[in-house]
Amino acid sequence: MSSTTCVVVWVSCGSKLENITTTTHQKSVVKCSNNNNDKIRFTSISSAAVAAASVPSRSSEEKVYEVVLKQAALVREQRKRRTIEIDDDFMTNLHLLNAAYDRCGQVCAEYAKTFFLGTQLMTEERRKAIWAIYVWCRRTDELVDGPNASHITPTALDRWEQRLNDVFQGRPYDMFDAALSHTVSNYPVDIQPFKDMIEGMRMDLRKSRYNNFDELYLYCYYVAGTVGLMSVPVMGIAPDSNSSTETIYNAALALGIANQLTNILRDVGEDARRGRIYLPQDELAQAGLSEEDIFNGKVTDKWRNFMKGQIKRARIFFDEAEKGVSELNSASRWPVWASLLLYRQILDSIEANDYNNFTKRAYVGQAKKLFSLPAAYAKAFLGPPKLTKMIMR
Amino acid sequence: MLWIELSITFHSMNSFIKKTMTIFSLQSQFLSCKIPQIPSHSKATIFRENTNQQFTLSGVSFLKPRITLCYSSKDGDNTPSESSNFCIIEGPETVQDFVQMQLQEIQDNIKSRRNKIFLLMEEVRRLRVQQRLKSLRKVVNEEGEEETNEMPEIPSSIPFLPHVTPKTLKKLYTTSISFMSGIIVFGGIIAPTLELKLGIGGTSYEDFIRSVHLPLQLSQVDPIVASFSGGAVGVISVLMLIEASNVEQQEKKRCKYCHGTGYLACARCSASGVCLNIDPISVSSTSTKPLQVPTTKRCGNCSGSGKVMCPTCLCTGMMMASEHDLRIDPFD
């Protein structure tokens, strides 16, 4: 699939439901002082990752970070469950609601098999919530990327956003909206990441080239980082976690970005065939590559060097994400670790293909996938990095 | 002769056609519509010349007078603003757009839109012919041999086999026939000659049955009956497999969100079609009237049908909205 799908990001994320609002409130009082440190650390990592030396006055990373801060703050504020006026029968009609959730599960199983298997590692409630969010994201993505994408207009996206607002106000339009509406009434999910995803779709309608990493970062945030932010409230944060909410949200964001970058690096050939190049133009120019090189699809040494740098950057984001996974609810950690490890292996697979992402599809074989499960389990429950490294080798 | 006339009408309709944007913009029936008016007489006269002939198009035959009547309806009701307003996602307000129209208005609107659909279909058909001709020429030039690759990929109905083309079909025939003759030869000539027996070391069938302690009547099965049963079992199981494979193929083509129905359950009325009338109950209890049973009203979301459009397949029920769908082929 093309890079605009946020499907594979979903291989992450977790399980047990905890009341994260009260716990994080306590933590935030203590941990406020760490915020600045987090911010400095975060931007330094990203700027280290950015090839270009100059940082614009307000880089995408800063803007995105502000969104993350707001999300974390919102979570702290919501001490009680959001009370939505549910005046629809659908939401109270349990039979229909269950049918809707089942349908969501079927769609998920159809389009994202590995992710669906990952959701089986979660609790029943969380699984259904994740399915509902997944289906909404996929429907949104299909608006610009699906079979009827040629008929989509900006008005259609506005109408879709209006429907999203209705969902968050308890007035869903159809059965899938109803499942999402029920989910957001049960979990402290905020509407902003959803709106940002629609914004990302709008961006995808107009843009097929990205001038620098800053623009690409913003796009990755819109289509994949938002997914991380949407799912943290569902996963729940461990009550004994010592990290601030911001750190965890940052880690989720980093995981989303890492996944999207991996997608992009894996699908270079496929995207090029549709006329899209997601790799930053300035970095391509720096490596001495032009668009023709990409469209021709030949692997040269220049290409190999370029890809090495890109993969290194994606791995930095994965490392950043790893810091937050252990802070999630203990039952959520296993699926998230599994997805993280699996997706990291796609980068290894690109390397093993001699950086030929034009014609060869980098995928992780079934055996490796299965083996990631116990490795992830070890990471999730056993903890010490040395032990898990031994198992991985 | 037919086509010349049609091309005349085609040219005169050009300006009219240019106003219609895409085939889906014709779905502006979802937008608020103006009353269709009878256009200028000039257009009507051109078409009246062609009233006397009947012609068939792609196997669909219809009389020209009907077309004339249709053409005479309003041509400009698809104003640019309306076309650009149309979008494929329904919302709770848009369903009401046509509620105000009268029956006759609605019928006239439907007729005019069907016309436009027909003209656009015709345009598409001709463009495709040109496209096919041009791409064929290109293929011939490049490969030096004629390869008409018009057919879409035919998936094989035998499970686990790759795509089927006329070439592979021939291969399949030869393979199957050789297999069958080989088995017949083996069973009829080779096995009796070699005295191939079921049991190890040349023991007979009866001894074999005895050795595995199965009921002895199995050893007395008539060979003709045995071969008939074996053949029948084979055929039936194959038919079963093919049918299962076929169903799986068809399912793949279905839209996964609405399961091929094209519609999703309306959430506002829980697919029932009616919503409760929720009026605020007055607090002042001057009257001691008991609380009345809440009345129901027609659901505004779905206009009482209980179903709303599936935005992924746009009510086609298929993964890919194809040409063979009722909206595209409305003359049914």
Automatic annotation (TrEMBL), chain A:
Q: Which reaction does it catalyse?
A: 2 (2E,6E,10E)-geranylgeranyl diphosphate = 15-cis-phytoene + 2 diphosphate
Pfam families listed in its UniProt record = SQS_PSY (PF00494)
Q: Tell me the superkingdom of the source.
A: Eukaryota
- List the EC numbers from the record: 2.5.1.32
**Gene3D superfamilies in the record, alphabetically?**
Farnesyl Diphosphate Synthase (1.10.600.10)
Q: Does the keyword Metal-binding apply?
A: no
Taking the record's annotation, the residue ranges forming a coiled coil are: none
This chain is encoded by the gene named LOC107496515
Q: Write out the pathway annotation from the protein's UniProt entry.
A: Carotenoid biosynthesis; phytoene biosynthesis; all-trans-phytoene from geranylgeranyl diphosphate: step 1/1
> Where does the chain cross the membrane?
216-238
**InterPro entries attached to this UniProt entry:** Isoprenoid_synthase_dom_sf (IPR008949), Squ/phyt_synthse (IPR002060), Squalene/phytoene_synthase_CS (IPR019845), Trans_IPPS_bact-type (IPR044843), Trans_IPPS_HH (IPR033904)
Q: Where is the signal peptide?
A: none
Example GO molecular function: squalene synthase [NAD(P)H] activity
Q: Which GO terms describe its biological process?
A: carotenoid biosynthetic process
Going by the UniProt record, its keywords in alphabetical order are:
Carotenoid biosynthesis, Isoprene biosynthesis, Membrane, Transferase, Transmembrane, Transmembrane helix
One GO cellular component term noted in the UniProt record for this chain: plastid
Q: What is this protein called?
A: 15-cis-phytoene synthase
PROSITE patterns the record matches: SQUALEN_PHYTOEN_SYN_1 (PS01044), SQUALEN_PHYTOEN_SYN_2 (PS01045)
Q: In its keyword annotation, does this UniProt entry include Ligase?
A: no
Task: Provide the family line.
Answer: Belongs to the phytoene/squalene synthase family.
From TrEMBL, chain B:
Q: What does the UniProt keyword field contain?
A: Membrane, Transmembrane, Transmembrane helix
**Which parts pass through the membrane?**
172-191, 224-244
Q: What is the name of this protein?
A: Protein ORANGE-LIKE, chloroplastic
Q: Which domain of life is it from?
A: Eukaryota
Q: Would you tell me the Gene Ontology cellular component terms?
A: chloroplast membrane
Instruction: Tell me the organism.
Output: Arachis duranensis (Wild peanut)
Is Transmembrane one of the keywords?
yes
The answer to keyword Transmembrane helix applying to this record is yes
